[in-house]
Amino acid sequence: MRVLLTGLPIRSHLLPALVPLARAAQAAGHEVAIATGGAVAEDVERLGVPVVVLPDVLTPGELGRRPELVDPELPAKLRRWRPELTGPLALPLFNDTMTAEFAANVVAAGWRPDVIVRETNEYGGLLAAEVLGVPSAVVDVAPLISRLVPDLAARLDVLRGGLGLPPSGAAADRLTAGLLPQAWYPPEQRTPGHRYHRVPEPAVPPAGDGPAVFAAFGSNVQALLPAESALMTIVVEALGALDVPAVVALGSEAAVTSWTGPRPANVELAGFVPQRAVLASCRVFLTHAGFASVREALTAGVPMVALPLFADQPANAARVAELGLGLQVDPAGLTPQTLAAAVSRVLAEPAFRSAAGEFRRRIAELPPLTDFVAALSPG
Predict the structure, then answer these.
(1) What is the pTM of this model?
(2) Please, which residues have CB within 8 angstroms of residue 158's CB and are 6 or more apart in sequence?
(3) Which residues pair with 34 in a beta bridge?
(4) What is the pLDDT along the chain (379 residues), one digit of tens a residue?
């Protein structure tokens, strides 16, 4: 079987899930490649997976330099964005032009698969599978994001027309590999084609005694957050008011060196942090609620204070709160006092850690994502 996996050229969309799945398919004797932009080709190929480079797929760097390609109003929105004042940033979660170009690139590449497996944020693979007459599946690296594009089916049908395809009125793949237990998914998203798996990860020893609180907001946040924002200062001040050790990841050593904000004695400012290792030993995770970070926290059984900033993060944060896995805090109007109160509550109330621990147990009982390969055979 020839398996083509498709994903946006973003490391966090490819390396944690698509690459292990690709390697498992290789080990099972299948011919495998990942189709994506050239920006991540070297990283993927270094892990032993061939890459079909799609020439028209924008790299993250190009999007960062020219955000108007995604949304003409985005540069102005970014200039005005102060999450502690204005709340989460409204980002476009589906781009018609980029999706159409991705699909056309996959079809033109000449790599003819028997099945296409895409990651959630990448819809060109779904359309390319329809053009090529092969089934498609999805690895759900952002489970709640499709609900945030209410006209998704209609917009995909417009793109189908441009590719000579009939409308389907749907945005469905034959199979879905969820990366958390079924309980994470709202009932309306639990389809017959859903499988639930855990991401296979090597055991990580705890990072020493570890902090009581670990705060990290992802690489994308660091790239988008305006220098004028006081968000990180509020975070450091809030944790400084607590009588527990804390670590705040600023995203780079340069950010630590240039930091001019407060430096409380109980708060360590760090650049790059081995997140999974720190999660293995901390008691509360202060996070932007990106799905990968939520998944890693639950895999470690760590409750969260979720401070969502953009994309699907508000939906993820709301789900964390709904399931009793932590608290959601609105960044708009954020003060050190309100944030410190939320962290203190999650530290103090055993119910949050109990719920996260139960989720950890459910995750450990799931079959590994590599088992999803067996479900991909078109037969």
Answers:
(1) 0.92
(2) 96
(3) 5, 51
(4) 999 999 999 888 899 899 999 999 999 999 999 999 998 999 999 999 999 999 988 765 565 556 666 677 777 887 888 999 999 998 888 888 889 999 999 999 999 999 999 999 999 999 999 999 999 999 999 999 988 988 999 999 999 999 999 998 877 788 999 999 999 999 988 888 899 999 987 776 666 677 999 999 987 777 778 888 999 999 999 999 999 999 999 988 998 999 999 999 999 999 988 899 999 999 999 999 999 999 999 999 999 999 999 989 999 999 999 999 999 999 999 999 999 999 999 999 999 999 999 999 999 999 999 999 999 976 5
CB 219 within 8 A of CB 239: no
On whether the 2-80+93-201+366-375 domain is CATH 3.40.50.2000, my answer is yes
Contact call for residues 326 and 320 (beta carbons, < 8 A): yes
Q: For domain 213-348, which CATH number applies: 3.40.50.970, 3.40.50.2000, 3.30.420.240, 3.90.320.10?
A: 3.40.50.2000
